[in-house]
Design goal:
Strand order of the largest sheet: 21-20-19-22-23
Largest sheet: 5 strands, mixed
Number of strands: 27
Radius of gyration: 42 Å
Low-confidence stretches: 1-11, 181-187, 795-801
Mean pLDDT: 87
Structural class: alpha/beta
Distance between the termini: 124 Å
Number of domains: 5
């Protein structure tokens, strides 16, 4: 609408006198609410509220909030009266007021209170949320000084018993939707610009400075706000410098409803009653889109119509009336009753009890009229007034109603957003954070301990409870928790508060929700579980010590990352029969109940039992470790029973040592012994696995498997006790070949740790060190030569070899472990004769390998000899020996490039070498025996 179109409207319905009357009506309502706000305050709190305009108007060294003489000051249009100056002089006797010069610029354009002040819900604990609207032209250093002044005033107010928070507002930026991310604890930054503006206009109390320009625009002109205001100013109905313009509510973007819904769902985690009301109001607004009849517009319409009843204009009452109208139209009595309970609990006047002080009777009378209108009786009032004593059943029922209301509104808003193709104004980061907060708070999943008391009851601890274990069928039982002290004849007649299969989920639920505290008397009927009352009380005491409640708030940084364990409690043999003290502590573990508190404040329970229970628990614990090694996880282990301390200490030691092994050497292997068998843990981050090794042959086979990189082998202190193998395995070095031998009678045990720490093992007849080691040395030198020949030239060593080291394994003294003696390489010379047996392996059909042997350069192939390959080669070897001597034949060189490419690992050469030598030597034995016979 242009100015010509607006002129008839202005001339017919608006003039300066009308505008003056409208402003006066707003100020009348404002004064009435300010008077009501004072009634609910202490004397010192009243002093804070009265002095705030003066403290922003002047800079005086002896007054609260003084920063410097150059700090911004001056409140537009404000001049203190004699009564206010007397109040200031009572605070600081030497204060003298110096009026501002008339043309001196005023840095503060307006002061407003926002929230529950002056409403039916105000009490002595109500906060003072003060909007300090400053001149948009203030430079950055002046804004910093003003912010410091606000901080000092906040501290002064707190000393007077008033909780005050100050928010700096740039009116020009605010009107455009640009402002600081957080104004109040109930605001989600820019996602709720229009809804926050609506709340401001219907709840704000003007303290001083300019009055809102919005007051002077009729509700029916809201959609033409800009043109209307321009005409008011250009035709000089008003002066722009007398008013502050924070914007209008002509159109609310549909995406804002979704953003507000997400934010209120988040706030509902801790303040469900308040959030249920706000979320429902957002739903009601969205249902009218695009012609939204906001409560602030209704307030303005009422004031324009000269309906100035403070009770009906009360912000909380107007919200209730709007929701009542919306829910009755939908036939939703259940959510309407929740709204009524929420409003009653917020006002907190306890009508079932005598009024404490008649001075606040207007609030009591107002809520009294409403409850009579709702048809509430004394029993219902007494129940709500006794909310501080609500216990499990009432809290669970109320939580169900609250969560239902929250999710119902959120589903509506989500559908609304989809149908209007509305995008949430939240950033992807904020959406992720809110989504994860909601998931952690409300999502049910296996093992998660549900939190049922989001701000419903301050104390859920029961005086007496009965804990019962009942066997449903052989091998199947459950635990149940009953209210009161019951005996075996009584509990079957009552419904339990909670029923679960295992004990720890029930105890964790009681602890998480405060159902059991130090004063609760708990009767126990444990069946055949072996759990005693001292054990039970010890468990509960451990939970209180190790998982203290309430939990610290989750930070945004935590929510930006995946959830990870923060504190882990392992409870061993919680309800299992007593262990056999003659067994090793780790072998006495019958079950492990695991309680995990993660970084999203989720409490999770898992149970491990059976032969592999301990290993499964250890594996899952390692898999869940944070990627960042500096992120610590608290681990606590407890075990019941006479030998519980030793078992707990051993399991704690095992978990700590394996965790340290994984942290220090990711990808390493960890050897441990459990229940008389060895197990090898593969410590690959995120892919932890364990392999049972029932005998030593299986152990050697597993340790000889090739790997793609150097992998240390770490040993649990109980693994291979007193064995020489532990000494050898603990001696691994990367990029090095190490040969170990041990003499046992006429036999020698040969072992090689290769460049990736794989172990090769073989027994051979022993004559002397030189004859034992020389064939192996020749073979390993050929392997090293092949390896180094394929390296880039800068990577070659001068000799074309890596380290090749030799050790003899000597028995330990007494209880001491075996020790290693470094030995020089066997003596070799160019003239030292030896029989050269080279093998070449190539891929064949069905995974077979084709073998070609060169015996002193004479070729023997499968193409020529087929299955008699080894026999013909052995026949030739015997023919070259003087007198047909009988001694083993050794492979001196091997080519695997056709099978394993150019990256074959030394242990692969050794494994093929052993197989080929076994075939040749068996053929030699057969031919030798045939010749002798």
């Amino acid at each position: 609408m242009n100015r010509q179109e607006l002129r008839p409207v202005l001339e017919e319905g608006i003039d300066r006198q009308t505008l003056t009357r409208i402003r006066a009506r707003f100020l009348t309502v404002n004064a009435g609410r300010l008077e009501r706000s004072m009634q609910a305050m202490s004397t010192r709190q009243q002093q804070v509220l009265r002095l705030l305009p003066l403290l922003f108007h002047v800079n005086h060294p002896i007054l609260p909030g003084y920063v410097s003489a150059r700090a911004p000051a001056g409140l537009d249009g404000f001049e203190p009266d004699a009564e206010l100056l007397a109040e200031a002089q009572r605070l600081s006797r030497s204060f003298t007021y110096q009026p501002h010069r008339k043309l001196e610029p005023r840095a503060i354009q307006g002061l407003y209170l926002m929230g529950s002040l002056g409403t039916v819900a105000q009490d002595e604990q109500s906060d003072l949320d003060v909007w300090v609207c400053h001149d948009p032209a203030l430079p950055a250093e002046a804004r910093d000084a003003l912010r410091r002044k606000c901080d000092l005033l906040q501290q002064w107010a707190a000393a007077q018993g008033a909780s005050a928070t100050f928010f700096l507002i740039d009116p020009a930026a605010f009107a455009c939707g640009a402002r600081e991310a957080c104004l109040t604890s109930d605001d989600c930054g820019t996602t709720q610009h229009y809804l926050l503006l609506d709340e401001f206009y219907r709840t704000a109390l003007w303290l001083g400075g300019r009055t809102p320009l919005w007051w002077l625009v009729p509700a029916y002109e809201e959609h033409r706000y800009g043109a209307y205001v321009e005409t008011l100013i250009s035709r000089r109905f008003i002066r722009a410098e007398d008013h502050i313009d924070l914007g209008h509510l002509g159109a609310i973007p549909p995406g804002e409803f979704l953003g507000a819904g997400l934010w209120q769902m988040f706030k509902g985690i801790e303040s469900p009653y308040k959030s249920a009301i706000k979320l429902l109001l957002t739903e009601a607004y969205a249902s009218e889109h695009p012609q939204v009849d906001c409560l602030s517009l209704r307030l303005k319409h009422a004031i324009y119509a000269n309906r100035l009843d403070l009770d009906e204009l009360d912000p909380y009452i107007s919200v209730y009336r709007r929701l009542e109208e919306y829910l009755l139209a939908r036939g939703d009595r259940e959510r309407l009753e929740l709204v009524r309970r929420s409003l009653y609990l917020k006002i907190n006047r306890k009508l079932s009890r005598p009024a404490p002080t008649p001075i606040r009777s207007w609030q009591r009378q107002l809520i009294g009229r409403l409850t009579r209108e709702w048809g509430w009786d004394e029993r219902q009032l007494a129940s709500l007034d006794g909310r501080a004593r609500w216990k499990v059943r009432q809290v669970i029922a109320e939580r169900s109603a609250l969560v239902n209301a929250l999710t119902c509104s959120y589903r509506f808003l989500s559908q609304f957003a989809r149908s209007h193709q509305a995008e949430s104004p939240l950033s992807g980061r904020d959406l992720s954070i809110l989504g994860r907060r909601l998931y952690a708070a409300f999502e049910r999943k296996a093992g998660k301990v549900e939190f049922i008391n989001p701000g419903i009851s301050p104390d859920m601890a029961e005086e007496t409870l009965t804990l019962v274990r009942t066997e449903d069928a052989p091998g199947e039982a459950h635990w149940a928790l009953y209210q009161g002290s019951l005996n075996a004849r009584e509990w079957s007649d009552y419904a339990p508060l909670k029923r679960v299969r295992e004990l720890l989920p029930l105890l964790a639920w009681c602890h998480r929700n405060g159902v059991v505290d130090g004063g609760t008397h708990l009767s126990l009927y444990a069946g055949d579980s072996g759990l005693t009352e001292p054990d039970l009380h010890s468990l509960l005491a451990s939970l209180r010590q190790l998982m203290p409640m309430p939990l610290a708030p989750v930070t945004e940084l935590d929510l930006l990352a995946p959830s990870m364990p923060r504190r882990v409690v392992l409870l061993i043999n919680l309800d299992a029969p007593a262990a056999d003290a003659a067994e090793a502590p780790e072998d006495q573990v019958a079950s492990i109940d695991q309680l995990v508190l993660n970084s999203w404040n989720e409490l999770l329970v898992n149970r491990y039992e059976g032969e592999n229970g301990l290993l499964d628990c250890l594996r899952d614990h390692l898999v869940a470790l944070p990627d960042d090694p500096s992120t610590a996880i608290e681990l606590h282990v407890r075990c019941l029973g006479n030998n519980g301390l030793a078992i707990a200490r051993r399991i704690d030691q095992l978990f700590v040592e394996v965790t340290s092994a994984l942290r220090q050497a990711p990808g390493s292997r960890y050897l441990l012994q459990l229940r008389g068998r060895h197990l090898l843990l593969d410590l690959t981050p995120g892919e932890i696995a364990y392999v049972p090794l029932p005998d030593q042959a299986a152990l050697f086979e597993r340790l000889s498997q090739p790997t793609d990189a150097y992998r240390p082998i770490q040993l649990d202190r109980q693994a291979l006790p007193g064995q020489h193998l532990a000494t050898v395995l603990g001696h691994g070095r990367p990029d090095c070949l190490q040969v170990f031998y041990r003499v046992v009678g006429e036999q020698a045990e040969l072992m090689v740790l290769d460049e990736h720490n794989a172990l090769w093992h073989q027994w051979q007849p022993f004559r002397d060190e030189q004859s034992l080691l020389r064939p192996l040395q020749r073979f390993l030198q050929s392997v090293l030569y092949r390896h180094n020949a394929l390296l880039p030239l800068p990577g070659r060593s001068p000799t074309g070899m890596r380290d090749l080291l030799f050790y003899r394994v000597l028995p330990g003294d007494g209880q001491a472990p075996a020790r290693l003696e470094r030995r020089p390489p066997p003596l070799t010379a160019a003239s030292d004769p030896y029989y050269d047996v080279q093998a070449i392996l190539e891929p064949g059909e069905a995974g077979r390998a084709h073998v070609t042997l060169f015996c002193n350069h004479r070729e023997f192939s499968e193409l020529e000899h087929g299955p008699r390959l080894f026999t013909e080669a052995a026949r030739h070897i015997l023919s070259q020996r003087a007198g047909g001597e009988r001694y083993p034949c050794y492979i001196t060189d091997l080519d695997l490039s056709g099978l394993a490419g150019q990256t074959a690992q030394t242990v692969q050469y050794l494994r093929y070498k052993a197989r080929l030598e076994a075939g040749l030597n068996q053929a030699l034995d057969r031919l030798s025996h045939t010749a002798l016979s």
